Amino acid sequence: MHETFIDIVRERRAGRLKDDPDLFTGLFWSARRGLELGLVDGLGDMRSVLKQRFGPKTRLHLITQPRGLFGRRLGFFGSGTRLTPADIAGAAVEGLVDAIEQRALWNRFGL
Fold this sequence. Notes:
Layout: H1 2-12, H2 31-37, H3 46-54, H4 85-108
């Protein structure tokens, strides 16, 4: 599988890869090092790269799963299932915990 991956990268990055013996050792490369090695074409965030490539009027829309009143898991209201107060409370708590986890992940990257 690793050899197939290497072949695909060499084929698609033909002429842009540096001749470095460590290139396909499985090491992790930083963005700058990946640029030096020819593994990437440039550095930037998704929005700026897409606006540069497709014009300043490019708009991105975040696509997310629809949420119920207390979070994602309450999609079962229309299923005819009788909900107990414990079901509703459990789903509300789960939705709250999920939201806190997502916020923590975004904060980890300074977003």
